[in-house]
């Protein structure tokens, strides 16, 4: 599915966007017939109201959408997406005083409202297409929308059809689309090429574990994205209860999100050198499964005591981060559906991130507000370092006690990045639990749009 604006030469129907406080004045500019119609229907410009405007001989003359007030709008985003989902099929244009970032957010929301996951069941397509206003970078918004659609598709696909092999295929298709190069290390070759923890986590599954390595761009700053690609997580021998296993097809949400971000970067031709690393595994149970109390030696040489096989994401990321850090890079970013602790802390709608770079943190905070992609900085709290040091090995993958689970996971990952001047880690949820405008229930990207907007400030582009 490709999300696009209406053709530039399309004949369009006006959609009037009216704030509550301006509704009375706006009604005075309407034809007497339309003013009477809107008065009869009780239209008052409240947020989310949609009324169609009748034309001659039963034709549709336009639509009017309530835009509420600042207080109501602050409780959500993509407010015009609800209208997009309810309008009859046709090509539309906006009549609005919105401009700048607010207009861009609403245009993106309109595009995203057209997303449908229809792989297994036919879905009614949205018929209301919007013509991009003059002066708007429509290509940028389409690239962002389609990057998000890719992320959603990958997360929404169940593990039977999105195991390590299928994730590899999806990454190869993305590389082919943008002229990127890609390589894969699979199965026991992970051992001969020194990725022991990726191999240990994935060796019990029917499909072999693998490390996927994509490169694009030949000039500019070096950016490496590392995404957790655990295509299904049973918990391993520390088996999850059924209720906790229900959403584990989304445990590759970090990989899906970095691939969506990579699409945005490549489609827009951002002038940088991009590398994307995805350790793709299934954490399963068989006679070859790794065990609690095993001690694994990582690619970096650090030993890790396994105190819970359900804390596997940080293990596969550790080997991939070590590889990323072995070559010169200006910035390394890891994204993972890593801990339940992060969801307890900030809920499903906010992407918590960790970094020691004040420049990156400031750029992300500003970008998140600008593009409506909420993130929140969490601390690399140094006194907690001792919590991940078990004594019998260099590191503990699952400290006892349950405190600060997201922070200790981030500190664990930071141990595998030494040389990159900037490192960021995102502990995302990757799922929209209830439907909202432009965000249907299901897989969701988090942090990618904020990162895309922040990259110029972060990397000096």
From TrEMBL:
<dbReference type="GO" id="GO:0006508">
    <property type="term" value="P:proteolysis"/>
</dbReference>
<dbReference type="GO" id="GO:0005737">
    <property type="term" value="C:cytoplasm"/>
</dbReference>
<keyword id="KW-0645">Protease</keyword>
<dbReference type="GO" id="GO:0030145">
    <property type="term" value="F:manganese ion binding"/>
</dbReference>
<keyword id="KW-0464">Manganese</keyword>
<keyword id="KW-0031">Aminopeptidase</keyword>
<comment type="similarity">
    <text>Belongs to the peptidase M17 family.</text>
</comment>
<dbReference type="InterPro" id="IPR000819">
    <property type="entry name" value="Peptidase_M17_C"/>
</dbReference>
<dbReference type="Pfam" id="PF21337">
    <property type="entry name" value="Peptidase_M17_N_1"/>
</dbReference>
<dbReference type="Pfam" id="PF00883">
    <property type="entry name" value="Peptidase_M17"/>
</dbReference>
<feature type="domain" description="Cytosol aminopeptidase">
    <location>
        <begin position="308"/>
        <end position="315"/>
    </location>
</feature>
<keyword id="KW-0378">Hydrolase</keyword>
<protein>
    <submittedName>
        <fullName>Cytosol aminopeptidase</fullName>
        <ecNumber>3.4.11.1</ecNumber>
    </submittedName>
</protein>
<dbReference type="InterPro" id="IPR011356">
    <property type="entry name" value="Leucine_aapep/pepB"/>
</dbReference>
<dbReference type="InterPro" id="IPR043472">
    <property type="entry name" value="Macro_dom-like"/>
</dbReference>
<dbReference type="InterPro" id="IPR048816">
    <property type="entry name" value="Peptidase_M17_N_1"/>
</dbReference>
<dbReference type="GO" id="GO:0070006">
    <property type="term" value="F:metalloaminopeptidase activity"/>
</dbReference>
């Amino acid at each position: 599915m490709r999300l696009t604006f209406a053709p530039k030469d399309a004949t369009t129907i006006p959609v009037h966007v009216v704030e509550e406080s301006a509704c009375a004045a706006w009604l005075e500019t309407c034809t007497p017939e339309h003013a009477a119609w809107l008065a009869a229907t009780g239209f008052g410009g409240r947020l989310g109201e949609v009324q169609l405007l009748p034309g001659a001989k039963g034709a549709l003359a336009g639509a009017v959408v309530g835009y509420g007030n600042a207080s109501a709008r602050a409780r959500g985003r993509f407010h015009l997406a609800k209208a997009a989902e309810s309008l009859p099929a046709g090509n539309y244009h906006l009549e609005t005083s919105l401009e700048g970032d607010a207009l861009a957010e609403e245009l993106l929301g309109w595009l995203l409202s057209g997303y449908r996951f229809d792989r297994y069941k036919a879905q009614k397509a949205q018929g209301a297409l919007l013509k991009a206003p003059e002066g708007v970078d429509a290509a940028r918004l389409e690239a962002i929308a389609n990057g998000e659609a890719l992320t959603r598709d990958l997360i929404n696909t169940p593990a039977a059809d999105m195991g390590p092999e299928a994730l590899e295929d999806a990454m190869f298709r993305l590389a082919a689309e943008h002229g990127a190069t890609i390589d894969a290390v699979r199965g026991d070759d992970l051992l001969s090429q020194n990725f022991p923890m990726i191999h240990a986590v994935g060796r019990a599954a029917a499909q072999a574990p693998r490390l996927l390595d994509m490169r694009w761009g030949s000039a500019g700053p070096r950016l490496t994205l590392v995404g957790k690609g655990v295509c299904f997580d049973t918990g391993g021998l520390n088996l999850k209860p059924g209720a906790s296993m229900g959403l584990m097809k989304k445990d590759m949400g970090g990989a899906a999100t970095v691939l969506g971000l990579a699409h945005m970067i490549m489609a827009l031709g951002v002038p940088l050198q991009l590398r994307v690393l995805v350790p793709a595994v299934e954490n399963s149970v068989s006679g070859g499964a790794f065990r609690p109390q095993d001690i694994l030696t990582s690619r970096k040489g650090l030993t890790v005591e396994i105190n819970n096989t359900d804390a596997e994401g940080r293990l596969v990321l550790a080997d991939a981060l070590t590889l990323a850090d072995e070559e010169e890079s200006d910035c390394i970013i890891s994204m993972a559906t890593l801990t339940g602790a992060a969801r307890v802390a900030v809920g499903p709608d906010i992407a918590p991130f960790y970094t020691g770079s004040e420049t990156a943190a400031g750029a992300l905070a500003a970008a998140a507000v600008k593009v409506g992609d909420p993130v929140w900085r969490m601390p690399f709290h140094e006194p907690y370092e001792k919590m991940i040091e078990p004594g019998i090995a260099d590191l503990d993958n699952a400290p006892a006690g349950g405190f600060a689970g997201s922070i200790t996971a981030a500190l664990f990952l930071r141990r595998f990045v030494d040389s990159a001047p900037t490192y960021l880690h995102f502990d995302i949820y990757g799922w929209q639990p209830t439907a909202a405008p432009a965000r249907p229930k299901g897989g969701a990207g988090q942090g990618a749009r904020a990162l895309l907007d922040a990259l110029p400030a972060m990397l000096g582009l």
